[in-house]
């Protein structure tokens, strides 16, 4: 086990010292906004192709595309995030905004399915009063610091909450180094890994493996990566797959506590139309609590994209809760255009309260 400080590029920043507007914001120029408009119009001329047909070729961005790809190194070895501020929320309906997110994401990498249901865009909205087995992004309120299962995670804001709901980011590299300094005993346990149990349908429609031993921190050369989900270890314990020792539980709790603390966290408001891309390997992310609207169509609503970046090395096998082998089975459940907000919200509004999603 290689327990030494992580020094991979400039990834170990502290939240209060990070000027994210100066370091991580890409404000589109008038010409770049015009490129986006031309790309949306091009999609409509093609007959509104389904999301997988939206590519760099069908959504051409002559100058914005190269500008986005130039950020890959900063995303991997720098601050690990970029906020694309387009200023065009009023120009497009929700479905075209979804196409914009998918099209811009195509210039950074390839979209991957996010669950057994095969969705290529996740609708991040509180439907816990409708969906009986709602995931974290389908429930309201605060979200604990965690990671997802992709190289990049993108969030586009369609509607902000009336109050609260700011995005929280923290450098997992900085958290790693603080644990090394103050609690190497806990860090050693996190490298050793704990049992994670994912949702049953993710496993059954995927590679069939529900419980794996996952290293919260892993090192490949100079690069330290993170994988953290508080729900998965708890689910493993509840199912009888594993027993967490008091020190293992303390290690998980201390990682989350540090990441959420004022010393480490960065708060970022994502305004309607903004797109936040984060490096899921080196950043932990969460959300402040918020007050929402009662009407489904007026609730806080973001869209989530998971992106695999070409040229980035694969995550260590010890950190793959979901694997590439899951993707074919998950995508078999997908239906054309099901992720578009109008279709998603219409389907949610038509369902009886508390009914699980159909396969």
How would you describe the overall organization of this protein?
30% of the residues lie in helices and 20% in strands. It is α+β, with helices and mostly antiparallel strands. It has one domain (23-312, 321-350): Clavaminate synthase-like (Double-stranded beta-helix, 4-Layer Sandwich), CATH 3.60.130.10. The strands form five sheets. Strands 1, 2, 3, 4, 6, 14 and 17 form a seven-stranded mixed β-sheet that branches. The protein has a four-stranded antiparallel β-sheet with strand order 5-15-8-13. The protein has a two-stranded antiparallel ribbon with strand order 7-16. A hairpin with a 2-residue loop joins strand 11 and strand 12 (223-226).
Structure characteristics:
359 residues; alpha+beta; Double-stranded beta-helix; seven-stranded mixed sheet; four-stranded antiparallel sheet; 20% strand
Q: Can you tell me the CATH class?
A: Alpha Beta
Strand fraction: 15-25%
Annotation field: number of helices: 12
Alpha carbon gap, first and last residue: 42 Å
* Whole-number mean pLDDT: 94
Coarse morphology: globular
CATH superfamily: Clavaminate synthase-like
CATH topology: Double-stranded beta-helix
Describe the oligomeric state of these chains in a short phrase: single chain
Please tell me the CATH architecture by its name.
4-Layer Sandwich
Runs in which pLDDT lies below 50 for 5 or more consecutive residues are: none
Query: How much helicity do the residues have?
Result: 25-40%
Query: Strand tally, please?
Result: 17
Structural class: alpha+beta
